[in-house]
Design a protein that fits this description.
The chain is of the alpha+beta class. It contains nine helices and 24 strands.
Length: 558
């Protein structure tokens, strides 16, 4: 595929690369720096940091710091060139200055600032802030990780996802900001692209489908004070799901694969995805180069310590079309087709190499859609959600075989997307009642996005009875807190009393705690399942009490 041309005829890839190179050079060339400072002195009056600050992708010696300059509402626009922004890092305990510098707010990237600070002490908390022309940003708190060769007594982190602005208030983020965790893993659906005239907070914005409309969506979401509080308190490790682009996107084929077979529609979708990628980068503290088109490598490894290694996956950009073209249905031979993929061949190979290189005690896979099998019964036939890994069984089996072959210890999958809290096990063959648990899965409920009532009834009334499922709650919003030690792990599922109001009466509680044992690497002969027939789900009598089934058809929008 070729890059979409800009209005001047220069490719988007070349344009952004040149812009970044120019901006970087400007911070080195004293004459350019002076010009950038002069532009800073001429900025419009008023608040320049309404989106707050953030940090992310820590290492043992560094972290990414982020902010973005935004022109005050009703005021003059920002200059069309880069602006010099000063940054500082201070010791949390003593307020001593540890590091400082000047970075460009890159005009071609929405005047966003990404600073990769290095040379910090391992396993240490810091404060940071930005300033321009005497105007200061909010102060954020961040930390470095312990690093290789160190096995901390414990690691605690939160998992969060799915924060539809119109569906509810971000009260869960307010409570998350008060947690004692080391970092936040955000698993996607940071924004939702569709307009909404209803809901708790109507979103009076058009459909996000180009750079300007995606930027506007992030500006709305990131102005929320509760979201800012969680960013200001901890470093985040962020990945994308589908709504950062559009609902149920599949590879290059767009929402629900609707562009398949239409070269013009594929080109239009890829152009849209390029804008979505750029807007995402402009608003996230990620240790990645800026995107330069519709193809963007998001998957990466984040090294924490000998206790923890994190694998950040991209389950949208490379995946095959749905089996049979449907988002849900009875299982079929196509889900076992080895040519179909969730991650793409290159990412699968990368992940296998990454698994081969780990010595960590806990290996956390930051994943978008539910990996465990979650069939629900509608009459005599089990129905599967094909947007999840149940639609890509061969791909799931390849990933699990890689975990076993590489002797990966304690694989723990953390997942978002479905707006339902859950705890379950990931197995090679769900038809075999004696199949061992290869990995455990913690599925965080949503920050604010609601779950379809009919789907909740099916999940809590049917899926909760499956023998490998330990917890299901689709009625409440919240997040999960995972604690890892050498002895085992726990996942505390926090739920807020309501996300439909933002008042002091809103409270948070732990609805369920999943206890996960420390285990040696699984050793077993890895053979593919022989059965590809449709099965009937027979609920067991074990598991949480079922919710009252809700009539109606289920929606599979994650």
């Amino acid at each position: 595929m070729t890059d979409r041309p800009t209005s001047t005829g220069t490719s988007r890839r070349a344009f952004l690369a040149a812009a970044l190179a120019t901006a970087t050079a400007a911070m080195v060339d004293p004459r350019s720096l002076a010009a950038a400072r002069a532009r800073a002195a001429a900025l419009p009056t008023g608040e320049l940091f309404p989106l707050g600050v953030a940090s992310g992708d820590p290492t043992a010696t560094g972290v990414v710091l982020w902010t973005r300059l935004v022109a005050p509402t009703g005021g003059d626009a920002l200059p069309s060139d880069d602006v010099a922004v000063d940054w500082v890092v201070r010791d949390v305990a003593t307020d001593a200055l540890i590091a400082s510098g000047t970075a460009p707010a890159v005009a071609a990237l929405g005047h966003s600032v990404h600073v990769e600070v290095d040379g910090l002490d391992p396993d240490t908390w810091y404060r940071y802030s930005f300033s321009v022309d005497g105007r200061s940003s909010p102060v954020g708190r961040t930390r470095t990780f312990p690093g290789a060769g160190v096995a901390p007594a414990q690691v605690r982190f939160a998992i969060a996802s799915c924060q539809n602005y119109s569906s509810g208030f971000y009260v869960a983020h307010e409570f998350l900001a008060a947690e004692d965790v080391d970092f936040v893993a955000f698993l996607g659906d940071y924004i939702y692209e569709k307009p909404s005239s209803g809901g708790v907070r109507p979103t009076p914005l058009p459909l996000a489908q180009d750079l300007a409309t995606y930027r506007a969506r992030y500006e709305l979401y990131k102005a929320d004070p509760h979201l800012q509080a969680a960013h200001h308190r901890f470093p985040w490790i962020v990945t994308m799901d589908d709504h950062e682009v559009a609902n149920n996107v599949l590879g290059d084929y767009g929402p629900d694969g609707e562009a398949a077979g239409d070269p013009g529609a594929i080109a239009a979708y890829r152009a849209r995805r390029a804008d979505a990628f750029q807007a995402w980068f402009e608003h996230q503290p990620v240790r990645l180069p800026p995107p330069s088109g519709p193809d963007y490598v998001l998957h990466r490894v984040v090294e924490h310590s000998d206790l923890l290694r994190i694998y950040v996956l991209d389950g949208r950009q490379y995946r095959s079309l749905y089996p049979g073209g449907a988002t849900a249905g009875p299982t079929n031979d196509e889900v076992f087709d080895e040519s179909r993929t969730m991650l793409g061949a290159a990412q699968e190979a990368w992940l296998d190499d990454a698994f081969a290189a780990t010595d960590a005690r806990w290996n956390v896979i930051a994943n978008q859609t539910v990996m465990s099998s979650t069939p629900f019964s509608t009459g005599s036939v089990a129905v599967y959600n094909f947007d999840q890994w149940d639609g890509y069984v061969a791909a799931r089996q390849r990933l699990l075989r890689s975990l076993v072959a590489n002797r990966v210890r304690n694989p723990l999958v953390v997942t978002g997307d479905i707006h339902v809290g859950g705890a379950s096990s990931v197995r090679l063959d769900y038809e075999d009642p004696d199949a061992p648990d290869i990995a455990y899965e913690v599925i965080g409920t949503s920050i604010s996005s609601s779950a379809d009532a009919a789907l909740v009834g099916l999940l809590e009334g049917s899926v909760s009875k499956l023998p490998w499922v330990r917890y299901v709650n689709g009625r409440q919003r919240g997040y999960a807190v995972v604690t890892l030690t050498a002895e085992g792990a726990t996942a505390d599922f926090r739920v807020v009393s309501t996300a439909l109001e933002d008042t002091p009466a809103v409270s948070v509680a732990t609805d369920f705690t999943d206890v996960i044992p420390d285990r040696e690497p699984i050793e077993l002969p890895v053979e593919p399942p022989t059965s590809t027939t449709t099965t009937t789900t027979t609920p067991s009598t074990d598991g949480p009490p079922a919710a009252t089934p809700v009539p109606g058809s289920a929606s599979y929008t994650g």
